[in-house]
Amino acid sequence: MASLTPISQSQSLFNKNQFKLPPILSSDFFPKKFSVSFLRMNSGVPTNAAAAAAGVVSATTAEKAKKRYPGEAKGFVEEMRFVAMKLHTRDQAKEGEKEVKEPQEGPVAKWEPTVDGYLKFLVDSKLVYDTLEGIVEKAPFPFYAEFRNTGLERSEKLAKDLEWFKKQGYAIPEPSAPGVTYAEYLKELSEKDPQAFICHFYNIYFAHSAGGRMIGKKVAEMILDKKELEFYKWDGELPQLLQNVREKLNKVAESWTRGEKNHCLEETEKSFKHSGEILRLILS
Prior knowledge:
Blueprint: H1 7-17, H2 32-41, H3 48-66, H4 76-86, H5 115-138, H6 155-167, H7 177-192, H8 194-223, H9 238-253, H10 258-266, H11 268-279
Helix pairs in contact: 5-6, 5-7, 7-8, 7-11, 8-10, 8-11
């Protein structure tokens, strides 16, 4: 009768020589998720074809995951900035792509502003800021409250400027159609479309801190003997105030879906349209 190999020896041979992956197919070569998938799909060693197919799927998935919207890596405010810059003319911003179609879109140095027109602009601007700041204070959506007392508020500053003009003997006009229309639109958006409202909030405050300041300085040189209005002054360091609001905006947008973010970005053109109509008053 043939002798039998002892069980302990047989088990040792089994462990040493059976079901061991070749080096090229070991889990050190492929990501762990691939080796787990292979073992689930096959009771034996995965084939090279299966490995290659899995690699293609992984590469495609990784490629899709890396695709981002312009500015997305830095936060949603950068996405808003990117879209806004594209709607500027080249004279207004180096990233601008818009063609000059309206007088206020051309170089400020070529403008012919009037004091009466500038007063109309200031009055309508105050109505818009009054509206924005009132909405934030009431906060029909709770997260609006994040943007109270940011230091960027302009309503009180504009009130002081209009009082100064009044003391100089100028009659202060009533708000005109561009300001009234925009204010009503902001009220409507704030109650039913928070993402769109935030787009206007961002563009109004941040545009004024950049291009708005430049316009104010140029107009003051032309018609106000270089007087610096309160509208263009902030209590505190403006870069830090802007950064604080930028961080709040990014934080709020973290809870939005991609669709909600895109909806916000799509509102940028309307924001520029309404602001442009008010800016045009300077030249009236």
